[in-house]
Amino acid sequence: MLILMTVILLLVCLVISNIISHYVPSIPTALTQIALGILIALGFPAIHLEIETEWFLLLFVAPLLYNDGRHFPREELWKMRGSILGNAVVLVLLTTIGGGYFIHWIIPEIPLAAAFALAAILSPTDPVAVNGIAKRIHLPERVLNLVRGESLINDASGLVAFKYAVAAVVTGVFSLREAVFDFTYMFIAGAVLGLLLSLALTWVRFTLRKQGIHDATLHSLLQILSPFVIYIVTEDFLHASGVIAVVVGGIVHALVKERTETMLAEEQMLTENLWSTVTFTLNGIVFLLLGLIIPSSMQATVENPNIGNALAIGYVAAIGFVILAIRFLWSLYSTSYEYHVKKAKDAEKPSVRTSLLVTLTGVRGALTMAGVLSIPLAVASGAAFPERSLILFLAAGVVLFTLVAATVLLPLLSKGTLAEGEAGDYLDLNEAKMRLWRAALKKIKAEMNEDNEAAAYRLIDEYKMQFKLGWLQGSPAHLRQMTEIRLLGLKAERNYIRETMENGGMDEEMFEAFERSLDLREEALSRNVHTHLAHLIGRVLREWRRSSGKRSRTPDKNKRLGVLHQGRDVQLQALQAAVQYLKAHAETGEQRDNVYAVILDYERMIARLKRPEARFDEQMEAQKEQLRIAVMDAERAEIHSLYEAGSISREQARELRRMINSMESVALYEHVE
């Protein structure tokens, strides 16, 4: 019962932390979550969690890194492979050796091998915390890609170094040759197993589809389970690096999906929504757990009369400074080498500011605490592990030190935070729209195959037409007014459909089909608080009327063609009624221009329905609808990525989503079931 209540309490705090971050965006969400975790630990002493490194890596690190591998820009990953591998391997070794010697020098009570262990577990970076900062400041994309790329690998290298340093303390024996061989095996075997297991899981899903098992929920669940299967098989059966395996598995999954696998739109939407929920929850709980274990980790050192609190804090500041200094010097050296010696094509000119940004984005996080908590209580001789409580205190302190340093200094290096709505370094709204348009076309081409080629090219033509008709036109106020006008047109269509039904012009089945179509279009336009509430109320009332007047229906396949013709005639008249209504209510000035822009959309719909040669290709329309759903998901994901990277403001993101919603409503007009 205590565990269940703890989980519920953590989820509640997760919600609270994100609400706080909405109103206080200058403080990273991760720091807020750590603070809430500390409050839980202090306010509820009965709650005590023993975090084991193995289950922490399986439950949190495996799915998060797999998801990062799915979405990491692979072209950038390949272009920056030298810098990423340097940070993930060489920098980890430099941090372990240099940091270890410094820790032993400043605190002689900690043996050299134990000092190496502490420095090793402090070497992996945690980019999750940086995302909260990136929302408010414009960090260079190269810096963010570097820290995200190295975090995919340095968890494995840091854990291997930590493992051998701890083993040296426990057994008193250390073999450099064995450590190098073990690391090489774990890295290469982990990458190969990640590739093979990901392909095997893809084959399983493909085989199930061939057998006629197309359940979207089942296939989405299989994708969510993939990182856990890959990690367990790699770690427990073949003793390779499960961390490297899940990263490679995520990348392979994305490549296979783009090039060969055809995924149903429903499955894709469900899977992405599940991943969004899983990563949101896991990311938050990681830092809540970190805050939860910090007080107990520090308690023994705080209560130790031989170490003053001021001295302990001084140790933390000194170690944190040296760890960051090693990262700074390495960054300065590696960029200078690429620019002056290697003369890489895409290399940037070395600068102190860029190196400082790379240094401060290397925030340490929950993996450090999970690893350091796995330090055994005793060595092989039975004696206590030397200075274990002090090592826990130093690790927790350095994690907080790097987080606070990033929170305070990154905005200063990025020329300060921006007030809400200021342009600053944000993209121009038209440039952001251009990026969405390019993302849409890229997604269509990625999803194109022999079966849906015709539908894909028709959808590309539609997007090109939308671009010509004003993607780059319109302010936020313009977009809001266009949405209001479209809602008025929908209201006119709905009134005509209802009057036709009441006058006996259609049967109940056709009426409900029209109502569902109008509901979908209205819902797409109603994604803000006020209009969405009105839409929900109207939809509830309509559903109640439908259910109260429901009659049995016996569909007749022989009448299907006649019903389709009748439905097209009614739809055509409903669109014409909307045009007449909008023309009658058009005013002057800008509103008049906006009304006639919406009327132009209606006239294109009418012209398309009137074409005598236009036959309804049910298969093509279904394929085009699947593609459209995937494309709009990609556009919304691009908006989220731009916002996360600090390229657009919250208000710009809101206006771009409103634009996508408006386009979605227009696109849904013809899909009457």
Describe the structure.
With 673 residues, the chain is mostly helical. It folds into 2 domains: 2-413, Na+/H+ antiporter like fold (Up-down Bundle); 429-547 and 561-670, no CATH class. It has helices at residues 2-23, 29-43, 53-71, 74-79, 81-106, 112-121, 128-134, 141-171, 176-210, 216-237, 242-259, 265-303, 309-341, 352-360, 366-373, 388-413, 429-447, 453-471, 476-502, 508-525, 529-548, 560-585, 589-610, 618-644, 650-667. Helix 5 packs across helix 8, helix 12 (265-303) packs across helix 16 (388-413) and helix 14 (352-360) crosses helix 16 (388-413). The longest helix has 39 residues, at 265-303. The chain is elongated, with a radius of gyration of 29 Å.
Kindly list the characteristics that best describe this protein.
0% strand, elongated, 673 residues, Na+/H+ antiporter like fold, mainly alpha, 25 helices
Shape summary: elongated
Give me the strand/helix succession: HHHHHHHHHHHHHHHHHHHHHHHHH
Q: Which value, in Å, is the CA radius of gyration?
A: 29 Å
Supply the helix-strand structural class.
Answer: mainly alpha
Helix content: over 70%
Distance between the termini: 48 Å
**Distinct helical segment count:** 25
The CATH architecture category of the largest domain equals: Up-down Bundle
Instruction: Report the average pLDDT across residues.
Output: 78
The third-level CATH topology of the largest domain is Na+/H+ antiporter like fold
CATH class of the largest domain: Mainly Alpha
Number of domains: 2
What's the number of extended β-strand segments?
Answer: 0
Biggest beta sheet summary: none
Return residue spans where pLDDT drops below 50 for at least 5 consecutive residues.
Answer: 416-424, 528-533, 550-561
What proportion of the residues form beta strands (DSSP E)? under 5%
